[in-house]
Amino acid sequence: MWLPKLGILTAYVVLGVTVTLSADEKDCFCKIPLKGEVDDCSCKIESLDSFNNLKIFPRLHSLLNKDYFRFFKVNLKRPCPFWGDDGRCALRDCHVDKCSEDQLPPGYKESKQEENKYTKEAQEQLHTDCKEQKELGGIDKTISSEDRESFKSWSKYDDAQDNFCELDDDNSADMEYVDLTLNPERYTGYKGESAWRIWRTIYQENCFKPDTPVPGYGPAEARGAEGKALQSGLDLMRSLKGMCLEKRVFFRMISGLHTSINVHLSAKNYLPAANGYGKGTWGPNVEEFQKRFDPETTNGEGPQRLKNLYFTYLVELRALAKAAPYLEQEDFFTGDEKEDNETRNAVKDLLKIIKSFPDQFDESRLFQGNNKEAQQLKEEFRKLFRNISVIMDCVGCDKCKLWGKTQTQGMGTALKILFSGDTMGPDSTVDAQQKKNFQLRRSEIVSLFNAFGRLSTSIKEVDVFRQLIKEKDST
């Protein structure tokens, strides 16, 4: 999906403030790096660039190639609950290659599932329970069909209290392992009404609305599906100053995710062979990047969208830091002892670097107080994000759906972490001692790290585009 060119302007309205660009800035906003503080945070973009590109990205890139994080179990066949199937993406690059059992690590193979299902402690407890049951006599295990349905409802209710995403059912026959490294996120050609309906539904129906209506621009309405989706995002962005902090955070996270996806699609774009013959390559498309982020093609909003990318990065960075004590106790089990040891050490090394970052996002500023209004806002926040996670089942391109589900689930896991634990704030943590009240599924951990990996890669790619544009303009 790309944003249409809106015409040459020298003054733009950004968050309600008129900004006039110099001739150099108007020609190419990437001639100079983004500067200043990330909105609603004290962190400066310049320090984040250096921290991510030099310290986080190399470690994370290596970690995500480990088996534990490569193999993601997902259901790509869940039907869209909001509208009928309007056709699948028929392009070859929309296809996702599934894993056969012989490609999986030993601990993930079906024949090993049951023996590896429980930890050593759980297995010992299970043995004790079975022994006691044998001694005390059999237990009537019959359950009526009505009770079974009730249990399902209870489970869904319990999940809804903690989770910001609707997670796939691990027991579904449609769950399949996918090797994320063999199905990279890149431009597939998926566009048009089906693609724009996804973002239009997210922005128009599942983002907080400003208290004061923001008038739309007529020309955007006339551009059909693309214009309406673009307009809804622009209107919300302009109205942020009239929203409370929680609503601004929600929008900036969604905008940052959208930005990150657009950076990936520009960075891994299909480039035809130079001579017009033979197989093309995948690489950075400067023109595509400028269409999506240059002020002239985004009504001045491109730089703000990129700032929202940094904001989303900080939120997920903070979630990893908060969950570090919990994650440091994780086994990261795949059945390959050598690989698992390397993964545990790599995770601890990454978390040590993440915790060293001085300007962590402060979640304690959100939903302050125990009053009814704050709790209602928090529940609305959770409900809207769960809806967005479900909308990913409506994506018509399997590869886009795979990465949409991975990244929204990762973001939802980050939110679950931030609002868990006994306290909130930069010094609070979630540790292994709180496992009775806080648990992360394997799929949540895999999606959390991969979602953060996508944001980290985006920030790295923005720097690459900045250099490419400078080179292009100097020739």
Automatic annotation (TrEMBL):
Binding site for FAD: 186, 188, 199, 255, 258, 292
Signal sequence residues: 1-22
SUPFAM superfamilies, per database record: ERO1-like
Enzyme active site: 397, 400
Subcellular location: Endoplasmic reticulum membrane
Keywords for the protein's UniProt record, in alphabetical order: Disulfide bond, Electron transport, Endoplasmic reticulum, FAD, Flavoprotein, Glycoprotein, Membrane, Oxidoreductase, Redox-active center, Signal, Transport
Membrane topology, from the record: Peripheral membrane protein
Main location, first listed in the record: endoplasmic reticulum
GO biological process: protein folding in endoplasmic reticulum
Gene Ontology CC: endoplasmic reticulum membrane
Disulfide bonds: 89-94, 130-165, 397-400
Cofactor(s) the protein needs: FAD
Entry similarity comment: Belongs to the EROs family.
Subunit structure: May function both as a monomer and a homodimer.
Name the UniProt record assigns to this protein: ERO1-like protein beta isoform X1
The encoding gene: LOC106161318
